[in-house]
């Protein structure tokens, strides 16, 4: 187990370096965008004097490296600064949005991951049958359509034609959990449809890949039923690639949902990022992007650790 | 129709019916007395009378154009979310009535010195903030000073440059002192930035708290998401029939439309024109299509070749087929422009100036006169100017071919269009919000030394008239001056104005409103919650 701990620490250290590099990239990208926060906030009707006064107030008259370093010195102590447009603490601004996004991602993941893996096992078991084909066509169709289109289709059939679920997710603080799950069902379902195919097909491929192995043949010869061969013998060895794909898709559920948020008017972190970029609100952009980057780093790390733990050969290297 | 028809009497009767003061039977009785046949009067009742407004209900309002980075600072009001919200929880000195006349809000009346250089507004003594504090002259002075001075970051600074001082005159009157006369000052007070906020002891305003003196007070809310408001019982105005108002930010056109169709909201502030015809088929939805003063302009630099020749400018104005553009780009929801920046719904509109028609032959002969046959120019545009801006220019280019003009359409990035393209390229497409009076609009974008003189047009006569008209308190004389200025813009100016876009919004059929809808903003001048009611 000591090895695993060492790997975790090494990867976390590398992760911090990655985050630092990303923060420089994001800062330069925001700097390169035409216009600045003063112009964006004041809009089309601003005069040059207004813009100058606003720049001075926000400290934009200082050179870019100085501004980056002052941000960085705050960030390493955990202070991500205040939003340039609204003067709110970045943490306060992002906090509730992040919670909303994590809630939706969890909701979708709780449905999608078991569904994808069970479907993957089933299609591997019933490979090349009608069931396999239909499941593949359906999931591939849903992954090939843009999210907003899937959302619109679901709204059309489940909100307009058959008014089962609300078309917009408008949340309020005093909602009970069942009500919350009902109001957010359509966005969660859209995301389930988007991520299921990838995980299901990877499960199927990983299992089928193993079916030609001698030890599977052995299991068959000793008379184990087909489902047992797959679930007991093939699946344990197929976990590593499946976990990797699941991790990637979980990261996507957190970082890639801005279109779903827009279509269902869900107040998540993606919309916050888009708004912040359009206003050049650098501290917010930076914080959100770092959250996204950290999500990828941590989930990939978790996937690698998971792959090691499920594979005795990796756990006890010669 | 029989007998002598007394129009004035009839108008009074209709008015009373509209306000719900006259029951149906009485209405018919009086109408017949006024000279109408009984059957005509009966039919007229259905058309003209509106049920008396009823109190109650929660008005759920889907708003487009809201951003998470918006704030309560009136100096940086820019999105519809901020502007629409401001008209609920804050008040202004004056307001634009549903019939587009100027009416009182916090100010009950206003008077000017004969040179219009000093204006005094008397404040409504009943007005109070949601916190319970009375609205006094001190609050008004502080609210105006928020937009004045060297340090201000307010976008309304340019509007108040002529104001040299704002002083309290007792607790319930405020005097504005101006560097030069401005007959429009009461109109300027309707500008969405000039909301009245509670004053701090040091003469600044407390905008952060969200306290205001408008018809509804904020219960809770988050920018870019939604706002819950409830009626302010101490409001000084008449109306505010709904108990509660929910404003939900719906930026996606499809989300807005679906929310209205499924009944998740009672009204949406903007309808996608492409699907307008489909929406109108729904029996449960009513669409309001209101002409406005918001213009699409295409300015050419009058000091840059080839636009420095007035014949070239007029040739370009003659080579656009406005009707086709309105039909195909604005889906009919627009009022035709006539190359002067004043719409029919605005004060002093000169109705007798003939419409400029599409005339490629005349354009050709003008180009010949200018020695610019086979003119080749570029027009810069971006999709963010308005939905269909690029398409409009492409269509214009096709139409201009008939005049032998080669118009190249340059599509620019949406981001930073107004900082990098507008005022920098010699021929661009621009979208302007409505301004309350011609003086504001002309001073902003057509005055010779204006920072935003987008066509770099410097006509001495126009500028002379502009200054004269500004301080002229005689309406008839002023109208004459604006008439001449509009003619100058049309025949000498450098701006092609294809159309003024309408406000197109929709509501559930149980949402009622009066006979007129203000043209200052969508949804009855953004005052739907205080003017409308549930059937």
TrEMBL record, chain A:
CDD domains: TM_PBP2. It is found in: Cell membrane. Residues 98-303 form the ABC transmembrane type-1 domain. The keyword Transport applies. The keyword Transcription does not apply. It comes from the Bacteria. Its main location: membrane. GO terms for biological process: transmembrane transport. InterPro entries: BPD_transp_1_N, MetI-like, MetI-like_sf. The chain crosses the membrane at residues 12-30, 102-125, 137-160, 180-200, 242-264, 284-309. GO terms for cellular component: plasma membrane. Keywords: Cell membrane, Membrane, Transmembrane, Transmembrane helix, Transport. It is a multi-pass membrane protein. PROSITE patterns: ABC_TM1. SUPFAM superfamilies: MetI-like (SSF161098). It holds the Pfam family BPD_transp_1_N. PANTHER family: DIPEPTIDE TRANSPORT SYSTEM PERMEASE PROTEIN DPPB-RELATED (PTHR43163:SF6). Belongs to the binding-protein-dependent transport system permease family. This is ABC transporter permease. It comes from Thalassobaculum fulvum.
Automatic annotation (TrEMBL), chain B:
One of its GO terms (biological process) is peptide transport. One of its GO terms (cellular component) is outer membrane-bounded periplasmic space. It is found in: Periplasm. One of its GO terms (molecular function) is peptide transmembrane transporter activity. Keywords: Signal, Transport. SUPFAM superfamilies: Periplasmic binding protein-like II. It comes from the Bacteria. Residues 103-447 form the Solute-binding protein family domain. PANTHER family: PERIPLASMIC BINDING COMPONENT OF ABC TRANSPORTER (PTHR30290), PERIPLASMIC OLIGOPEPTIDE-BINDING PROTEIN-RELATED (PTHR30290:SF10). Belongs to the bacterial solute-binding protein 5 family. This is Peptide ABC transporter substrate-binding protein. It comes from Thalassobaculum fulvum. The lineage of its organism: Bacteria, Pseudomonadati, Pseudomonadota, Alphaproteobacteria, Rhodospirillales.
């Amino acid at each position: 187990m000591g090895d695993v701990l060492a790997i975790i620490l090494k990867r976390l250290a590398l992760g911090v370096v990655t985050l630092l590099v990303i923060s420089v990239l994001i800062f330069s990208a925001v700097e390169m965008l035409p216009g600045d926060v003063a112009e964006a906030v004041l809009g089309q009707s601003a005069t040059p004097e207004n813009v100058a006064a606003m720049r001075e107030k926000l400290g934009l008259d200082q050179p870019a490296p100085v501004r980056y370093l002052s941000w960085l010195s705050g960030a390493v102590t955990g202070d991500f600064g205040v939003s340039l447009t609204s003067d709110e603490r970045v943490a306060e601004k992002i906090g509730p949005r992040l919670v909303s996004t994590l809630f939706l991602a969890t909701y979708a993941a709780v449905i999608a991951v078991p569904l994808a893996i069970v479907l993957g096992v089933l299609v591997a078991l019933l490979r090349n049958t009608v069931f396999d084909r239909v499941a593949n066509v359906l999931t591939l169709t849903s992954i090939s359509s843009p999210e907003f289109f899937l959302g619109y289709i679901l709204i059309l059939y489940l909100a307009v034609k058959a008014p089962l679920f609300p078309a917009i997710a408008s949340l309020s603080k005093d909602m009970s959990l069942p009500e919350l799950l009902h109001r957010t069902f359509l966005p969660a379902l859209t995301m389930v449809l988007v991520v299921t195919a990838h995980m299901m097909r990877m499960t199927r491929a990983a299992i089928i890949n193993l079916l030609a192995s001698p030890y599977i043949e052995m299991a068959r010869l000793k008379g184990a039923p087909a489902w047992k061969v797959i679930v007991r013998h093939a699946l344990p060895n197929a976990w590593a690639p499946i976990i990797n794909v699941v991790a990637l898709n979980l990261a996507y559920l957190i970082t890639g949902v801005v279109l779903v948020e827009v279509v269902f008017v869900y107040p998540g972190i993606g919309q916050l990022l888009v708004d912040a970029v359009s206003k050049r609100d650098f501290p917010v952009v930076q914080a959100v992007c770092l959250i996204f980057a950290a999500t990828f780093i941590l989930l990939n790390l978790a996937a690698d650790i998971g792959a090691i733990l499920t594979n005795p050969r990796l756990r006890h290297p010669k | 129709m029989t007998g002598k028809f007394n129009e004035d009497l009839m108008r009074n009767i209709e008015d009373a019916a509209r306000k719900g003061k006259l029951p149906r039977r009485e209405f018919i009785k009086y109408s017949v007395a006024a000279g109408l046949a009984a059957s005509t009067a009966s039919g007229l009742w259905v058309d003209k009378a509106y049920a008396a407004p009823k109190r109650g209900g929660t008005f759920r309002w889907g708003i487009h154009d809201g951003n998470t980075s918006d704030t309560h600072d009136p100096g940086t009001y820019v999105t519809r979310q901020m502007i629409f919200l401001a008209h609920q929880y804050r008040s202004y000195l004056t307001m634009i009535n549903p019939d587009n006349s100027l009416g009182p809000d916090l100010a009950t009346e206003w008077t000017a010195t004969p040179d219009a250089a000093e204006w005094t507004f008397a404040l409504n003594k009943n007005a109070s903030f949601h916190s319970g504090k009375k609205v006094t002259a001190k609050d008004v002075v502080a609210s105006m000073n928020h937009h004045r001075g060297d340090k201000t970051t307010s976008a309304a600074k340019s509007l108040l440059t002529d104001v040299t001082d704002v002083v309290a005159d007792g607790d319930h009157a405020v005097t504005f002192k101006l560097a030069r006369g401005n007959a429009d000052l009461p109109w300027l007070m309707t500008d969405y930035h000039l909301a009245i906020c509670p004053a701090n002891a040091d003469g600044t305003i407390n905008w952060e708290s969200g306290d205001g003196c408008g018809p509804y007070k904020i219960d809770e809310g988050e920018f870019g998401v939604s706002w819950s408001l409830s009626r302010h019982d101490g409001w000084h105005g008449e109306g505010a029939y709904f108990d509660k108002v929910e404003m939900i930010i719906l930026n996606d056109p499809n989300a807005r439309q679906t929310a209205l169709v499924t009944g998740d909201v009672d009204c949406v502030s903007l309808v996608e024109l492409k699907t307008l015809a489909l929406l109108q088929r729904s029996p449960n939805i009513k669409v309001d299509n209101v002409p406005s003063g918001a213009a699409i302009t295409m300015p050419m630099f009058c000091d840059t070749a080839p636009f420095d020749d007035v014949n070239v400018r007029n040739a370009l104005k003659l080579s656009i087929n406005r009707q086709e553009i309105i039909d195909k780009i604005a889906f009919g929801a627009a009022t035709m422009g006539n190359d002067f920046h004043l719409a029919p719904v605005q004060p002093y509109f000169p109705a007798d100036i003939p419409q400029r028609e599409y005339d490629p032959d005349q354009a050709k002969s003008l180009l010949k006169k200018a020695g610019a046959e086979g003119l080749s120019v570029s027009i810069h545009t971006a999709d963010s100017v308005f939905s269909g801006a690029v398409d409009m220019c492409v269509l214009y280019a096709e139409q201009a071919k008939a005049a032998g003009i080669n118009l190249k359409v340059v599509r620019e990035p949406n981001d930073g269009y107004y900082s990098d393209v507008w005022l920098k390229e010699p021929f661009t497409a621009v979208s302007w919000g409505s301004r309350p009076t011609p003086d504001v609009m002309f001073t902003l974008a057509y005055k010779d030394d204006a920072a935003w003189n987008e066509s770099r047009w410097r006509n001495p006569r126009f500028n002379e008239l502009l200054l004269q008209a500004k301080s002229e308190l005689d309406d008839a004389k002023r109208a004459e001056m604006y008439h001449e200025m509009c003619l100058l813009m049309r025949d000498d100016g450098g701006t092609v104005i294809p159309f003024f876009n309408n406000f197109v919004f929709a509501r559930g059929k149980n949402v009622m409103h009066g006979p007129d809808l203000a043209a200052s903003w969508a949804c009855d001048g953004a005052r739907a919650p205080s003017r409308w009611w549930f059937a």
